[in-house]
């Protein structure tokens, strides 16, 4: 598998904490969306690590097609 599976056609709103690291699922197979659960091990795709620069709400990509991984850039609107 070299192309990510669309997990959902909308972003995931997540309250992140400053300094905490988040492993965003880039393959779309995780059962703990939008975060990695290790399901990528059967693919060539690896998770993207995001370190929160401040505590805030962020929108993590759900379609896995974003050009600004791991955050949503609106690409889901074209699927």
From TrEMBL:
SMART domains: ZnF_CDGSH. It comes from the Bacteria. GO terms for cellular component: cytoplasm. Keywords: 2Fe-2S, Iron, Iron-sulfur, Metal-binding. Transmembrane segments: none annotated. InterPro entries: CISD, FeS-contain_CDGSH-typ, MitoNEET_CISD. GO terms for molecular function: 2 iron, 2 sulfur cluster binding; metal ion binding. Residues 9-46, 47-79 form the Iron-binding zinc finger CDGSH type domain. PANTHER family: CDGSH IRON SULFUR DOMAIN PROTEIN HOMOLOG, CDGSH IRON-SULFUR DOMAIN-CONTAINING PROTEIN 3, MITOCHONDRIAL. This is CDGSH iron-sulfur domain-containing protein. It comes from Sneathiella litorea.
């Amino acid at each position: 598998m070299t192309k990510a599976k669309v997990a959902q056609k909308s972003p995931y709103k997540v309250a992140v904490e400053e300094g905490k690291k988040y492993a965003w699922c880039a393959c779309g197979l995780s059962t703990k969306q939008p975060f990695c659960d290790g399901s990528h091990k059967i693919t060539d795709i690896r998770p993207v690590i995001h370190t929160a620069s401040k505590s805030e709400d962020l929108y993590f990509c759900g379609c896995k097609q974003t050009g600004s991984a791991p955050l949503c850039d609106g690409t889901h609107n074209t699927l």
